[in-house]
Amino acid sequence: MHTHTCFTCDQFLLPPPIPRHQGEALAKTINRTAAMLDNNTNGNVAMNPSESVETLPKEFEPYEMASPLVLEEHGVLSENRVKNREIVLGRNVQSSCYAIKEPEADDDITGDREAYMASVLSRYRTSLIERTKHHLGYPYNLDFDYGALSQLQHFSINNLGDPFIESNYGVHSRQFEVGVLDWFARLWELKKNEYWGYITNCGTEGNLHGILVGREVFPEGILYASRESHYSVFKAARMYRMECIKVGTLISGEIDCADFETKLLINKEKPAIVNVNIGTTVKGAVDDLDMVIETLQKCGFSNRFYIHCDGALFGLMIPFVKRAPKVTFKKPIDSVSVSGHKFVGCPMPCGVQITRLKNINFLSRDIEYLASRDATIMGSRNGHAPIFLWYTLNLKGYRGFQKEVQKCLRNAHYLKDRLLGAGISAMLNELSSTVVFERPKDEEFVKRWQLACEGNIAHVVVMPNVTIEKLDFFLVELIHGRCRWYEDGETKPPCLAADVGAENCRCAAHKKLGSSASLQ
Amino acid sequence: MHTHTCFTCDQFLLPPPIPRHQGEALAKTINRTAAMLDNNTNGNVAMNPSESVETLPKEFEPYEMASPLVLEEHGVLSENRVKNREIVLGRNVQSSCYAIKEPEADDDITGDREAYMASVLSRYRTSLIERTKHHLGYPYNLDFDYGALSQLQHFSINNLGDPFIESNYGVHSRQFEVGVLDWFARLWELKKNEYWGYITNCGTEGNLHGILVGREVFPEGILYASRESHYSVFKAARMYRMECIKVGTLISGEIDCADFETKLLINKEKPAIVNVNIGTTVKGAVDDLDMVIETLQKCGFSNRFYIHCDGALFGLMIPFVKRAPKVTFKKPIDSVSVSGHKFVGCPMPCGVQITRLKNINFLSRDIEYLASRDATIMGSRNGHAPIFLWYTLNLKGYRGFQKEVQKCLRNAHYLKDRLLGAGISAMLNELSSTVVFERPKDEEFVKRWQLACEGNIAHVVVMPNVTIEKLDFFLVELIHGRCRWYEDGETKPPCLAADVGAENCRCAAHKKLGSSASLQ
């Protein structure tokens, strides 16, 4: 066993050795991944950047048009502007796709088509297994087994419209959906006859819904959200043409209530619609709900505010974290959204939206415009998602989730301690399982572990499927990687004091501060 | 075999006899359904209308709050108003749900939990089979077999963000998504390097996206949509705070371009954002795209308009209908949306959105607010849906869809002829497979066949899974039903002249007109 001599690592740290078989497995995995990525540009995979419209089979050729239509004059873009934007949004980043090929007449006989599709799917499945294994950056619980539900994949299950009002379409799963909603309403302490909600397609839909309800309740309201809120919050403001004020944050990522107060006082005449983060996207910071409410009341907004809680990840974890400020409808909050594919785990994105029944009625008051029962953002709604959620909630129950939350928090602490111990800047919010740390210098490494990055920081979200073993594996790779990345001694790891606080920073300047703090 | 003597049927009509075994099967099905509905209120299914919050297990009890918080003063609803709305949106309509029960400590040992869940799922599956069999009202193709894809249900596949820019989350299906998008871009004749698009969650998301892009291109634009447009179009206007003008329709359900012209001329100073229906929800009417463009140009809007085509159902069918006006980006249209769960068939709702690349850049110009690559409505996106679509498109190809469209149109004509022949008011738009007819008087019948109704009319949407045999089965039930519903001779079938035109109406007043017209 060797001690590290690389200057980026603490002298006395002994990283766990990579057992021979693990080292081999690692090398194999890397090779396999590379091979698979190579495969992706071979044989059955078509390259994308074609310049012209492929012609359709002859019988589908466009009809000759009677008069040539004006195409180029339409629209008002200046060419320059378009070109600039195309760099950001252009197609050039996507290098490959599985093209759809028109079947040959004799495909049924030769079986070629079937064989082609089966081979694409089988290679795809292999890559999914590998990608699922090396995943740490997104807050998705990848540990689920819905085998018992595969029988339902044969049905077109659609909960179109309101969960509480049956439409005539009979192939739905409202009975499961309402069961799930009841469970969440109970978790967040809102009576059955006082709540309304639905299963959404994702966290964004929850935020779009919560903020829209807020705007309908207070049409002149200003939207306040900390600058570390999810981008969908600001997208909502833009979509809905709402005035939106960004509030500063503390180093932890929490909303800065002093700044909030200042901004409220400047805009006292208009009601406040507030997005409260129950776990920010990057740092997993939990806004202090009680202090937000206190600030609103102190500034004279006592009955002129609407609070939407964006609990995408943490909405489901926080009820089980001891000493955490409680998210409950016994406080004057108006809506809570949480993602279903994050902590619960689900094959496809989904979410749960719970709001006060009295508020939802604002959304559908204008029946001249809307079908009277339309109170959801989407019309047709995935009927499978509620069954997945129902299945897991039934299986685990409140107690099961509590155990998993505790495990995640423990493992997150382990990761943070190991990172700091290895001389890598890192931070973990007390109520969170999101470990923020120095962004790995190698983009291939970032991609391999599917880390979400912002500026100089990256994060690992410790979900129930993230075991100590997996974390160790990751740590070994990271520590070894850093030795290589910084071996020339010229480039140095970045200072993260502004991102995670000086006490959590292990850059050359703050290293000693951190070590002495941890010795105290 | 008997001829009908009931006055609602034409004298000379011989309805196909119900073969004995079919009649028995029908009776059995009805009984089975009834039994199942009964079951739904038994045993494992909890009744919903509880009055209070059930308490959580003790360890999850809410913390005592330091100071009581103001609940009742929050919000500005008057009590009366709430009560009125609760009738529309209240929970009372939903009678049952599969409650989620907290697992007992010994569940693992007794196997009770597993048995409970399995029994719920098995009963649910039986009801899905029955409900899938008796379904005619919604435009969902229920005929699919994705058995080969069930292996993928174990993965949390998420195409978060832009389809053309890979995020760091590796468990995605962009390579399938782009294949599907390419196929549709080719169908609608937009070059690969000139289009942008994504797989949406449903038709509504497509409309929300198309109209939002339109508003970003023309921030002062007025939204024009025929009054028979899908409700999501008007919801978009309200969400986006856009001025919206409803345009009248012809009896067929198509947009009335004379009315459109009048309304355009009143608002010449503002650009026009136009929703063109490629198949309206109720009547399946296809707006005349060419005439809409002509009207815009005639009124001087030559380069100040944005056209979104809502092709939820028919966007995929119309390319294969001979003599249909072509939906193509060679005309000055800006976006087209189509649903994936409708004509293609998919276990969960989804859709395809195709728009001009140059337009999409407007949506993301404001990078201060948005992550620079965010151009979709939703953030996390279902990665399974693109694979389902990819699978079916590959299997069927353009030719396969053409055959299915032709079959649907033939079967729709058959149904319309049989209805009119039986003296039942009915209409079928030339380019459509949506048969509109007299609303069945018995709501149980409507529910049994899952018919979508509006006012005096109902419709059947003839999808690829709707066979002549199924239509015959339905017709027999409908004709027999009508004999009963109108047997007293006092109530008479409603006049549908205003809905389907006098020539398609078979009410007492218009009966002769229709018969003589059909003799000519």
UniProtKB/TrEMBL annotation, chains A, B:
Protein's UniProt keywords contain Chloroplast: no
Any GO BP annotation: carboxylic acid metabolic process
Residues annotated as signal peptide: none
Gene Ontology molecular function: any one: pyridoxal phosphate binding
One Pfam family, short name: Pyridoxal_deC
Coiled-coil features, chain-numbered ranges: none
Entries under InterPro entries matching the protein: Group_II_Decarboxylase, PyrdxlP-dep_de-COase, PyrdxlP-dep_Trfase, PyrdxlP-dep_Trfase_major, PyrdxlP-dep_Trfase_small, Pyridoxal-P_BS
The entry's keywords: Decarboxylase, Lyase, Pyridoxal phosphate
Cofactors (names): pyridoxal 5'-phosphate
Keyword Lyase in annotation: yes
UniProt record similarity statement: Belongs to the group II decarboxylase family.
Identification of the protein by name: Serine decarboxylase
